[in-house]
Amino acid sequence: MDQNDHADLHEVASTVSEARLASVFGTAVDGIIVINEKGQVLAFNQACETLFGYKAAELLGRNVNKIMPQRYATAHDGYINNYRETGERRIIGIGREVEGRHKDGTEFPIELSVGEAATAEGRQFIGILRDLRAKKAVETKLAEAQAQLVNMTRISALDEMGAAIAHELNQPLTAMMLYLQTISKKIRASDTDAPVVTIIDKAIGEVERAGDIIQRMRYFVEKKEPEREEVDAAELCRECIELVKLGASEDRVTFALNTGADLASLHVDPVQIRQVLVNLLRNAREAVGKSDEKLVTVDLVQDNEVTLYRIHDTGPGVPDHLRSELFRAFSGGKKKGLGLGLAISRSIAQNHGGDLYLDQDNEGAGATFVLKLPINRPKNAEND
């Protein structure tokens, strides 16, 4: 075999090698980019075109920092120069997560591995890039699912604990009721002053109400339908305000109720709705505790077959970072408690066909929570 034959074979082998390289380069799933010591793009495969939105022709000979976020781009040339002068590796031979920049300006996470090759034209750096957006989306969904699972597990445990507590509390409540009734009978028989009898009767009424609340909470945990009855919308709110005011006498908090005329009655479970209103009013009372103006206002309005209780306080308002988690169980901003009050209250409202939400358009200081309930007029009234 003469020298010309050797040259022909070498040329054929070189051509085959280049074809194979081009095939791998063009069909690779991951992005492949080659740059020189000046940071100029020498090769940019089809996967990179899809990843960054640029055609290879748009980037060949251009600085690679064009596909980097600005915070990376400004320092990239310095990294290359530092490596040339010191040999200190920061990313070469080490895979790491960085961010790329699409042609449309979108920034997204990528996994980058960089290798180095010595050529006749100088050092060249080969980058292998993998889009991490799908992986990140899966990780986010997995994290959310895990958080929901943990939350549901805690709620399930709370359900079981609530049922057990309700069962245990019924016994002392029953005993308290018997004791109070016995005292009431003895006092009445001894012809004692009427005010004492009145106070004991009120205590008996509160014990009965406590038992009623426990029973309703058991229904709520077991997802039973509310025990609805017709109630006066304004009178229900007045009762709740009076109850909350009992614990606010030393706080010097002022409560105000504004109602419209000719309000329709509500068809709701009065125990559950009373629980929601009391919870909102107590929260408002606590919110104004350190304010110069200690005022809690309830605006009761009806419109389009809907009743709205707008409870506004003059407190500091709800911080932005708490708003998205406000109605989630176990995520309240209070130092005490489980953060269940608003979560349960919203569930009760929604179980009545209504809702409970924070008024995001609230003007001025303080916060405004809105309890929305359907009026649910009786059928015979609807047909009139």
Q: What's the short version?
A:
This protein has 384 residues and is an alpha+beta fold. 49% of the residues lie in helices and 21% in strands.
- Taking all Cα atoms into account, the compactness measure Rg is 36 Å
Mean pLDDT: 78
**Overall 3D form:** elongated
The helicity comes to 40-55%
**Secondary structure tally: strands:** 12
Query: Which sequence of SSEs, written as H and E, runs from N to C?
Result: HEEHHHEEEHHEHEEHEEHHEEH
Q: Give the strand order of the largest sheet, numbering strands 1, 2, ... along the chain.
A: 2-1-5-4-3
Number of helices: 11
CATH topology group of the largest domain:
Heat Shock Protein 90
Give the structural class. Answer: alpha+beta
